[in-house]
C-alpha cells in the first residue's frame, strides 16, 4: 500500500471511529431524539454510495471504511426510527 492509500485508510478509520460514541450513547439511552432524521437518511445514503464507489474502483480503504460506517450509521438510523 502506498502513502496515498494509507492516507485514505487513516481518514476512513478516524471518520468511522467518530460514530462509535454516538452509537453507544444512542444504544444506552434508547433515544435519538436529538438527531435529525433527514441528516441520518442523507448521510447513510451517501455512505452507501461511497461504498459502491469503492467497490467499483477496487479501493480496499474506501470499501472497509464505508462498510463499517454504513453499519454504524444504519444502526443509528434504525434506532432513530424505532425510538425517536
From TrEMBL:
Keywords: Membrane, Transmembrane, Transmembrane helix. Its main location: membrane. Gene3D superfamilies: 1.20.1280.290. InterPro entries: PQ-loop_rpt, SemiSWEET. It is found in: Membrane. One of its GO terms (molecular function) is sugar transmembrane transporter activity. The keyword Transmembrane applies. The chain crosses the membrane at residues 6-24, 36-56, 62-78. GO terms for cellular component: membrane. It is a multi-pass membrane protein. This is Glutathione synthetase.
Amino acid at each position: 500500500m502506498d502513502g496515498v492509500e494509507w492516507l485514505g485508510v487513516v481518514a476512513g478509520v478516524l471518520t468511522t471511529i467518530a460514530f462509535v460514541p454516538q452509537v453507544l450513547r444512542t444504544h444506552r439511552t434508547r433515544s435519538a431524539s436529538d438527531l435529525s432524521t433527514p441528516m441520518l437518511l442523507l448521510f447513510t445514503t451517501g455512505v452507501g454510495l461511497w461504498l459502491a464507489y469503492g467497490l467499483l474502483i477496487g479501493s480496499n480503504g474506501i470499501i472497509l471504511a464505508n462498510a463499517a460506517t454504513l453499519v454504524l450509521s444504519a444502526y443509528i438510523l434504525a434506532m432513530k426510527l424505532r425510538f425517536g
